[in-house]
Amino acid sequence: MTDTLETPAATAAEGAPASGAKRLFIKTYGCQMNVYDSERMADVLRPLGYATTDAPEGADFVILNTCHIRERAAEKVYSELGKLKQMRERKIARGDGGMTIAVAGCVAQAEGEEIMKRQPAVDLVVGPQAYHQLPELLTRTARARGERIGADFAPHEKFDALTPEMIKTRGGDGPTAFLTVQEGCDKFCTFCVVPYTRGAEWSRPAAAVLAEARALADRGVREVTLLGQNVNAYDGEGPDGKPFTLARLAYALAKIPGLDRIRYTTSHANDMSDDLIAAHADLDALMPYLHLPVQAGSDRVLRLMNRKHGRQKYIDLIARIREARPDMAIAGDFIVGFPGETDRDFEDTLDLVRQVTYAGAFSFVYSPRPGTPAAGMPGQVEEAVALERLKRLQALLFEQQTAFNAAQAGRTLNVLFEKKGRYEGQAIGRSPYLQSVHVDGADHLLGRIVPVEILSGAQNSLNGRLVEAVTI
Fold this sequence. Notes:
33% of the residues lie in helices and 21% in strands. With 472 residues, it is α/β, with parallel strands linked by helices. Helix 13 (343-356) links the parallel strand 14 (329-336) and strand 15. The longest helix has 24 residues, at 383-406. The model is unreliable at 1-16 and 142-150 (pLDDT under 50).
């Protein structure tokens, strides 16, 4: 299972640019926060006359919004840049103008100077806190290489650059939306590059988040997913000047008319506060699906990872959450083959999975990230051993996920329909537990939350039928 995305920006769905408009193509790698950032890049460039297109060929401006989490991430970017260089040369040769090429996101933050040296075709390198500077940087592409790197700006500046008009017209037309509320990380897990590429933890003011959420609700968005590298560490300034916790933010969001569902990701076990657990018991709008990574089930490996919590604290935390919200479904993240991991350590991970039981999970073989402490640790696990462990872990996780989905058969769940299905009349929506639900005869209900009787559940989705006829 993977959370990696490699798609054009969601705004590309707007279709071809109007005649005379400059064409913008954004390719997004990685997490939902990068999807959100890509939408914002399109927003800040729209006043300059850029309209999104769904292919790089013929584009006037191409942005690769990168992710540094996965192995060989930079190499994928360099391969794509080689193709773009050839596209630009062909575009110039046929007299169709040029193509500005930019690399944004975490690879840009971590390897900005190296990118410029290795691939001269790149015009701009923009770190994840600097996309609001794109209009200015576009006017500086002829300057020296060092002046073209805009990676050292405070995170609040990029949100300050979002005007009310941009918020009202931000890309995307569906009933769900991502909303970044927090950035950066202060945890310094030894395997992770986020503290080095995204910087220290910073939270948006509550008023700004609520204003954007209201604008989304006015456009028909029924569900928002709050995003942050450590989203439950949120402590944005409240209207009274005092810090807002994520729980207080959830209560405020739940009061917005039309906004019926609230989710958040990704969380850290050390930031799962009492008031947030209580909010899950109090708020129907706060969905009963929590992504709470643990990474490993061995105390020794957790110490090596610098997770700052042990296995029992995590298990006890899950029990407290389920006591507050008995129907809570848990998702997690796991890394196998971490440096020094023994067979006994891995068995501890399997034991933790059996105790918690997961409705979904992302699991990976450890891959060294340059510059992180774990990359230089002794005891690097052989690839064949790590892959065998991953196979065993995923078999258990898939078994649990399939069992959880199958257990929904016979239940009636409220489903938010998001898009048309593959077959005539079919619609696809999401259950409260984030499961994909396929229902025939429901394509007229897009954007609505409707009770659905679940007929069956498979590993990755549910099938259901409308409880009663619903008209527009």
